[in-house]
Design a protein that fits this description.
7 helices, binds S-adenosylmethionine, seven-stranded mixed beta sheet, alpha/beta, 7 strands, Rossmann fold
Length: 177
């Protein structure tokens, strides 16, 4: 099972489901319009490998069994750019605790952002984190979107507005609880 948190318009979720028919995809999104878009696409494409949690991903993360997820995606989480709102950002040490429990050893966690200050928040959350390893070996690894990571609507808008996007990949380490 793979998990996408905050799938928005579901472009990436549906693409992954179509390209990986042997994988089950769980999409979390509290925004009703996004859920409706996902349901429409699931219906039109007759997809049988997508489950939706139309609510906060953190509830699902607490409920999922340990080591049950093989890959997770958090693509362009809400930026909360104002200083007084930074604490509302989804990526935090607490979220990493929830993810570390459900991701199986060796699972990949992909995170995208177009906000330099959010990149900083993410890297601070992962700094010194023994349960996750950032896979980047050089700038090319986080400046370019991998071929199996289709562009989302939010990313298209960010690019149109001239913002640089960052593509991060972490791996759940196997020998750290
Ligand atoms: C900036 S949008 C990006 C949407 C999509 N990933 C994309 O790249 O187009 C962030 C999305 O995360 C969703 N979101 C925010 N908090 C969430 C949470 N706690 N659990 C699940 N989704 C959440 C929002 O409803 C929103 O659709």
């Amino acid at each position: 099972m793979w998990l996408e948190i905050g799938f928005g318009g579901a472009e990436h979720l549906i693409w992954q489901a179509e390209h990986n028919p042997a994988i089950g995809l769980i999409g979390c999104e509290p925004f009703e319009d996004g859920v409706a878009k996902a349901l429409t696409a699931i219906d039109e494409k007759a997809l049988r490998n997508v489950l939706l949690h139309p609510d906060d991903a953190r509830d699902l993360l607490r409920w999922l069994p340990e080591s049950s997820i093989g890959r997770a995606f958090i693509l362009f989480p809400d930026p909360w750019p104002k200083k007084r709102h930074v604490k509302r950002r989804l990526i935090s040490p607490h979220l990493l605790d929830l993810l570390a429990r459900v991701l199986r050893p060796g699972a990949e966690l992909r995170i995208g952002t177009d906000i330099g200050d959010y990149l900083r928040t993410i890297l601070i959350a992962f700094h010194g984190e023994r349960r996750f390893r950032w896979t980047a070996r050089g700038p090319a690894d986080w400046r370019h979107r991998p071929a199996d990571w289709p562009q989302t609507r939010y990313e298209q808008k960010a690019v149109r507005h001239g913002r640089r996007c960052y593509y991060l990949s972490f791996v759940r380490e196997s020998d750290v609880a």
